[in-house]
Automatic annotation (TrEMBL):
Transmembrane spans: none
Reactions the enzyme catalyzes: 4-amino-4-deoxychorismate = 4-aminobenzoate + pyruvate + H(+)
Annotated protein name in UniProt: Aminodeoxychorismate lyase
GO molecular function per UniProt: 4-amino-4-deoxychorismate lyase activity; pyridoxal phosphate binding
Amino acid sequence: MHISLLNGVSGAIPLSHRGLAYGDGLFETLLADQHGPHFLGPHLDRLSAGTHRLGMAWSSAQRLALRGQLTALCAHLDAPHLIKVMLLRSNPGRGYDFDPLLQQTDVLVQCSPYHRPDWAAQGASVALSETHVSVNSTLAGMKHLNRLDSVLARQSARRQGVDEVLMATDSGSIVEASSANLFFFRHGYWSTPPVDQAGVAGVIRQQLLTRFPDIQISALAVDELDQVDAAFLSNSLMGLVPIESLMARPLPRHADIHLFHSELAQTC
């Protein structure tokens, strides 16, 4: 099933929209089936937090309407689907400036079949991206529409012939993969890099940090990758993906990954 809805009805954004011109907005990507969108509450929480940080017009009534719309969509699904939700700032006129009193928020919802890539089940081969992640504490953590870092990083993965690439800052701190968060096992414990200066605070990442408080938020430098004993990637579509090869070095699949997966499956 392929659906595209703009503010609840079939449609698309106009070519002059500032969301298209400037990437002025936020998005969420959800896995959905006939039981509903997975982790819908946390996704809506992240959207609401992002609208507050960006000063976008977004009310509790709009959030409630979006929840109902997404839930209703899933009633007709007979297979896994991807739902993408975009909140786009709309404002009269052109240019970067906007009037806070005149702005509105357009809601674009797209729904299409989802097929998990084969490598996600087999385990990922991962290298280091030649593209650095942009550091900006004002935008860090949010899933905003400015994703050029990831676009270029995906091409780095293609050139290197790997499934995914890790992205680091200019100073050499690993932040995330091009489309996933990173968890790594080192010195006897699990950690994930901080995302307070760059990167996306993923929904699955937050679920794991909440449910497994022993997981630490710890920095990982590029020159420390050879100290990693096991690792996995996480995002809302693929779930947890073990890293089978890191910088051409084989990694074992840690038993804890199955434990993490089982806990998430019970709560999505």
